[in-house]
Write a structure and sequence with these properties.
alpha+beta, Alpha-Beta Plaits, 3 helices, 28% helix, globular
């Protein structure tokens, strides 16, 4: 299992608009691609003093599935044009981690 981790930042004023864009356009667009081995996407939001950080964590079965999503330069950030208009800045590259353990507790 591969976790693709990426960060984007908005102004305080654009944070809600960006979150809506992710929920209504960006995430459904990714799901519509029907990428083999794509399992999920998680969204995290953290308000800082002068900006809002968004972190996405996508889950894939393998690196080959990430390549099917992003292409041979699979570390390259996936930032559609409509997101670029709302974001203040973003990571140019995503990080990929192999999931080694998950422990769930009651």
């Amino acid at each position: 299992m591969i976790k693709r981790i990426w960060h984007g930042y908005t102004t305080l004023a654009n944070a809600d608009a960006y979150e809506r864009l992710l929920d209504t356009v960006i995430f459904p667009g990714i799901e519509a691609k029907k990428i083999p081995g794509y399992r999920s996407i998680e969204l995290f939001r953290r308000e800082l003093s002068d900006e809002v950080q968004f972190t996405t964590v996508m889950t894939f079965d393998s690196v080959d599935n990430v390549i099917a999503f992003q292409g041979p330069d699979y570390d390259l950030a996936y930032v559609p044009e409509e997101a670029r208009r709302v974001l203040k800045r973003w990571d140019q590259r995503a990080a990929h981690h192999e999931l080694r353990q998950t422990r769930l507790y009651d």
